[in-house]
User: Which sequence fits this backbone?
């Protein structure tokens, strides 16, 4: 038993000795220096300025003035103008529809005959009154009452004859007015919207004949988000405020065909579902009657618009892509370290945000998307874009062995 234990101890000892020899014979691993990776970014050097906003909107062209023509008399339609058709141009005062006027001509003739009759009766009463006055003065009737005296002088008969004459004159005036109403004329220069009658049709007072709209001016009904209304100069009723300028175009990829307008009012109602507000822009001469444009701005056209908004004071214009979580930006400080800065946004659109606080002139905002980095990380600037007014002028920065050198780029 003792002998077996002794053999085990010798084997274990030899094993440990062999292991130690093998470890001592293992070559030491070569030491390699770990290269610290540099974070290289492009930055934008920002500068504040006063910027006038442009609010983009979409909408539809509408007629500013639209009139439904309605018959005021009864009769058969004798004439319909050849250009009284949908889409045709009509001039102010142009005869569009003529209702048969034969009955109204007869009314005028009867009224003229009636006034001749009452004028003759009036002349006769005046002659009788003159004779009665002479007789009254000859007889010297001094004890009569005022009423009896008036009766003796035929004053009631004269008043009745004068009233009949006035009634006859009013009858003539009414007959002539009715005759004029048989001619339906265009109230202004415009375009026919629709026609609801034909020649030979019988009409009565209140019968719709058609409708036209004015082409002197057009309204453009534009929809904008409710929160952007405060950035527009929308005049209130009776206000003398300056109107916001509006540029209107039909193709969003090109503004070659363009119309100028002004923002005149807001409808004052917010759509409870979409939270949009409708504002009205006014355009002069939409059908190019006094201009050289080839393309008219037709009623019903879907359009795009750039509305001149209010001016923001001392703001920094920054592309939205450089803003994280809607309120943070990465900047590089003078020690070439990353700093996370919270900013306040006065206004934003689909491309840019306008920073009112949180950044200062000269701050270098990272244009490179940074994920997983912490504040204080050392940074190497590769390229700088310096702001000039509201634009950006590129400055080429080259990196050589971790050191940057600036060269002013062409504007």
Assistant:
């Amino acid at each position: 038993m003792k002998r077996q234990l002794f053999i085990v101890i010798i084997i274990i000892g030899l094993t440990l000795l062999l292991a130690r020899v093998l470890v001592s014979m293992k070559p030491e691993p070569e030491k390699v220096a770990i290269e610290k990776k540099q974070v290289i970014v492009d930055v934008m050097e920002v500068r504040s300025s006063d910027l006038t906003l442009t609010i983009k909107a979409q909408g539809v062209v509408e007629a500013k003035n639209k009139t439904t023509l309605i018959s005021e008399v009864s009769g058969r339609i004798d004439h319909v103008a050849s250009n009284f058709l949908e889409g045709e141009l009509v001039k102010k005062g142009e005869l569009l529809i003529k209702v048969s006027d034969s009955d109204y001509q007869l009314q005028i003739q009867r009224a003229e005959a009636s006034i001749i009759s009452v004028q003759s009766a009036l002349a006769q009463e005046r002659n009788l009154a003159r004779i009665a006055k002479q007789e009254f003065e000859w007889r010297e009737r001094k004890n009569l009452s005022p009423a009896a005296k008036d009766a003796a002088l035929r004053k009631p008969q004269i008043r009745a004859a004068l009233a009949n004459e006035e009634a006859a004159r009013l009858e003539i005036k009414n007959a002539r007015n009715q005759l004029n109403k048989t001619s339906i004329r265009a109230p202004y220069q415009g375009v026919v919207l629709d026609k609801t009658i034909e020649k030979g049709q019988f009409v009565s007072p209140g019968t719709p004949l058609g409708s036209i709209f004015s082409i002197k001016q057009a309204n453009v009904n534009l929809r904008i988000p409710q929160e952007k209304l405060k950035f527009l100069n929308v005049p209130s009723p009776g206000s003398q405020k300056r109107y916001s300028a509006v540029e209107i175009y039909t193709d969003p990829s090109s503004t070659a065909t363009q119309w100028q307008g002004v923002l005149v009012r807001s409808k004052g109602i917010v759509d409870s579902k979409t939270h949009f507000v409708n504002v009205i822009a006014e355009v002069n001469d939409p059908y190019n009657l006094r201009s050289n444009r080839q393309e008219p701005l037709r009623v019903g056209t879907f359009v795009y618009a750039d509305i001149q908004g209010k001016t923001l004071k001392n703001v920094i214009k920054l592309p939205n892509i450089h803003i994280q979580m809607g309120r943070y930006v990465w900047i590089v400080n003078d020690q070439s370290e990353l700093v996370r800065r919270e900013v306040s946004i006065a206004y934003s659109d689909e491309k840019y945000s306008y920073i009112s606080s949180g950044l200062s002139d000269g701050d270098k905002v990272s244009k490179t998307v940074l994920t997983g980095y912490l504040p204080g990380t050392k940074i190497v600037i590769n390229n700088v874009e310096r702001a000039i007014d509201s634009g950006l002028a590129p400055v080429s920065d080259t990196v050589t062995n971790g050191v940057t050198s600036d060269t002013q780029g062409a504007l």
Summary: The two ends are 98 Å apart (CA to CA). Confidence is low (pLDDT under 50) at residues 388-411. Residues 102-139 form the longest helix (38 residues). The helical segments are 2-25, 102-139, 146-152, 155-180.
